[in-house]
Amino acid sequence: MIRKNPRGDLPVVAESAFVDPTAILCGKVVVGENVFIGPYAVIRADEVNEHGDMDPIIIGDNSNIQDGVVIHSKSGAAVLIGENTSIAHRSIVHGPCTVGRGVFIGFNTVLFNCTVGDGSVVRHNSVVESCTIPANFYVPSTSHVHGDSDLAMIEPVTPDASSFSEDVAQTNLRLVEGYKKIANEL
Prior knowledge:
With 186 residues, the protein is mostly beta strands. It has a single domain (2-182), classed as UDP N-Acetylglucosamine Acyltransferase, domain 1. Helix content is 13%, strand content 34%. It contains 1 helix and 21 strands. Strands 1, 2, 4, 5, 7, 8, 10, 11, 13, 15, 17, 18 and 20 form a 13-stranded parallel β-sheet that branches. The chain has an 8-stranded mixed β-sheet with strand order 3-6-9-12-14-16-19-21. The radius of gyration is 16 Å and the shape is globular. It holds the Pfam family Hexapep.
């Protein structure tokens, strides 16, 4: 469902993107080319800052926002999801937040008030807040990174983790094509 926010902003979705009919996109949201937005995802840009303004939530080209993901932002702050990035099932991305290009965010992960650098992998059931994960770093499953002081446990991304991330991204690009083909069959 595509709908306006109380301020009247309406999402802008590239024609080549696929948004599942059960997903909700509300407000100042920009969805790039070949993006897959899965069932029951909620992407909501509806809060304003103290001046009545808001930055957009932007989903970069060729990215995938999987089933049950919630993307929202506090007080109109920006949320930027880079190109070729995967946000896996039931994750929460709460702005202000920047997720770089070619990133994998694992199942049930929470990101808040943080930056995740290009090529990084944050595995399942992790929490990242109030810090910057450098480019090409690996956050193991169930990690809690609550500030820059916790970054000492972060290791570089392994070739296996990088390969897995790329496979997820490619699989979801094929899903966009498949779902776009059958969109008018129902």
